[in-house]
Predict the 3D structure of the following.
Amino acid sequence: MRKYAILIIVGAALWGTIGWFVKHLYEFGFTPMEVVTLRAWSSAIILITYMFAVSPKNLALKSIGDINYFIGTGIFSIIFFNYCLFTAIELSTIPIATALLYTAPAFVTIISFFVFKEPFTGAKVTALALTLLGTCLVVGLTPNSIQSLEFTAVILGLGSGLGYALYSIFSKFALKKYSSLNVTTFTFIVAAVTLTPFFPYKEKSYLLLDPSVLFYAIGLGLLPTAIAYIVYTYGLQYIEASKASILSTIEPVVATLIGIFIFLEPFTFIQTIGMGCIIGAVLLIQLAGNRKLPMKLEKQK
C-alpha cells in the first residue's frame, strides 16, 4: 500500500500548488470560473496531445455508455465543486470555504460504505476526525467566523466538498475499464467542452496571446491538473476511496507552506498544530493499511 499511498500524496501535493498559478492568472483580470475554464482546456489539450502521440486508439471510448463515468467526474465533480467553492468564497472567506471543501473525506467515507462496502474502522474514523480538525486549524477557522456564516455559504461549501468527493467515487467505477490516464483525459475533455460557452472569448481572447498568460495557463493545466490527477487516479486503483480522500488532505498543508515561503504569508502556532493533525492522519492511514494490503481492482483491459 505504501507505494500507492505515496502516489496519492504526490497528487494531492501537486494540487497544493494551484494557488501559485491561479494567483498570477488573477493578476491578468481573469475571474475564478474563467481560470477553471483555462485549467480544463489547457489540461485537456496537453492530455489529448500526449495520448495522440503514444496511443491514439485509447482516445476512443470502449462503449458510448461509458461517457456517464466522465460526466460524473468532469461535470458533477470538477465543474460542480469549483463553482460551489468559488461562490462560497465570494459569500464568506477563503479559509471558511476551504474548511468546508475538506468535508470531502467524510462524504467519500459515507458514500464508499454504501457503494463499495468499505468498512468503518477505528483508524479511519480517527484519521477523519484529525483531518477535519487539522484543516480547520490550518485555514484559521474559528468559532467566531462560524457564527457569522451565511446559510447559503454553508450549503455551497458543503456542496464543494460533495463535488470534490464524487471524483473518487466515479473514478472507482471508470478504473474498472480505463487506465488512470484515460480517466483523467476524458474527465477534462468533458469539463472543457461543457465550460466553453461560459468563457468571454471576445473580451479576453487577446490575453491568451500573452506569453506570461500561456505560461501560467499551461503550467496550471500540466502540474496541478493533468499530472496530479493521473497520479492520484492511478493510486486510487489500489487504495480504498475513503482512505485516498483522507490522504489527499495533505493538499492544504502544501498550499499553506507555499503561502509562507513564496508569498511570505503569516504563519501561526495554531497552523503548525493543524498541519501536525493532518500529517498524523496520513501516517495513521498508512500504518493501518500496511497491516492488511488492499486487493487490486480488476485488471485493466
